[in-house]
């Protein structure tokens, strides 16, 4: 496995394609939940051993090992279904055991922090963008409602907005596709917009709505990347109609005006349909 690219098993998607909740995971997990959890825990033990070293490793072998194990872990997380609820009337399904472990041990935060301390080279940055996009687009669970998923995502996006690091042009398609997925999830789960806007400055960077700030530079681009940015921005602006603080931020910090859901109802239907 170590000789194989950690992204080789992810579904290839061109810049014009979209993934959704109905998209099939890259490698369906046919084992029972307990077995999948055991496999996940085994990968995490090997990753955490590297992450817990006192000195951040610059070894390419350590980086390859972390990448390969992370690939396996996040594919298992994306494939996991919510746990069965003992309360048949519950509106929110309980977390699956893998997601519960990710939340309890703050695994994604540890992974992103390790990459940032090590120095986020373009290969690692691109790989993380693709993995988060796969995770959000294919997950069977509402991951962004958990700060243990949302905050490390914002930390990664904050690095993309950093003036010194930024986002290389070769990674712009991956960045916009991830932002588009976040906005689709936000449209389906309005609570995510509130969480995004209220996130701590350490995760958001210098603005109150990092997602919006990252999208704006791409909206006048030609081709699929521009269309994806515009579609995502429409979702943000439509959702702002029910969130006064976000609407005010957009009105005061950009040349856009908040819009109502009715203004873009036809455009929204394609995104919000389950």
**Over the alpha carbons, how many angstroms does the gyration radius reach?**
18 Å
Tell me the structural class.
mainly alpha
User: Helicity, in percent?
Assistant: 55-70%
Gross geometry: globular
**How many strand elements?**
0
Strand content: under 5%
Q: What does the main sheet amount to?
A: none
Fold blueprint:
Elements: H1 33-51, H2 60-79, H3 97-104, H4 107-118, H5 122-138, H6 147-161, H7 172-188, H8 191-198, H9 201-204, H10 210-215, H11 223-239, H12 244-253, H13 265-272
Helix pairs in contact: 1-2, 2-5, 4-6, 5-7, 7-11
Region (Disordered): 1-29
GO cellular component, one term: FHF complex
Biased composition (Low complexity): 12-28
Can you describe this structure?
The chain has 274 residues and is an all-alpha fold. The chain has one domain. It has 13 helices and no strands. Residues 12-28 have a biased composition (Low complexity). Residues 1-29 are annotated as: Disordered.
Summarize the entry for a quick read.
This protein is mainly α.
Features:
274 residues, mainly alpha, 13 helices, 59% helix, globular, disordered N terminus, FHIP
């Amino acid at each position: 496995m170590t000789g194989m690219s950690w992204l080789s098993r992810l579904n290839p998607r061109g810049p014009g394609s979209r993934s959704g909740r109905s998209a099939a995971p890259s490698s369906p997990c046919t084992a029972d939940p307990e077995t999948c959890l055991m496999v996940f825990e085994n990968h995490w033990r090997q990753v955490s051993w590297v992450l817990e070293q006192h000195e951040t490793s610059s070894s390419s072998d350590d980086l390859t090992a972390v990448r390969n194990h992370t690939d396996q872990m996040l594919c298992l997380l994306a494939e996991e279904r919510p746990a069965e609820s003992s309360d048949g009337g519950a509106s929110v399904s309980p977390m699956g055991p893998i997601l519960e472990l990710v939340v309890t041990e703050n695994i994604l935060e540890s992974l992103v922090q390790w990459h940032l301390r090590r120095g986020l080279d373009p290969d690692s940055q691109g790989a993380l963008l693709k993995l988060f996009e796969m995770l959000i687009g294919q997950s069977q669970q509402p991951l962004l409602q958990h700060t243990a998923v949302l905050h490390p995502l914002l930390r990664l996006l904050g690095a993309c907005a950093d003036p010194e690091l930024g986002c290389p042009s070769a990674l712009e398609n991956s960045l916009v596709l991830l932002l588009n997925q976040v906005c689709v999830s936000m449209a389906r789960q309005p609570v995510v917009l509130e969480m995004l806007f209220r996130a701590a400055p350490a995760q958001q960077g210098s603005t109150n709505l990092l997602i919006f700030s990252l999208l704006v530079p791409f909206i006048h681009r030609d081709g699929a990347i521009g269309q994806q940015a515009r579609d995502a921005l429409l979702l943000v602006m439509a959702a702002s109609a029910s969130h006064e603080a976000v609407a005010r931020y957009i009105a005061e910090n950009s040349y856009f005006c908040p819009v109502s859901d009715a203004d873009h109802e036809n455009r929204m239907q394609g995104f919000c349909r389950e």
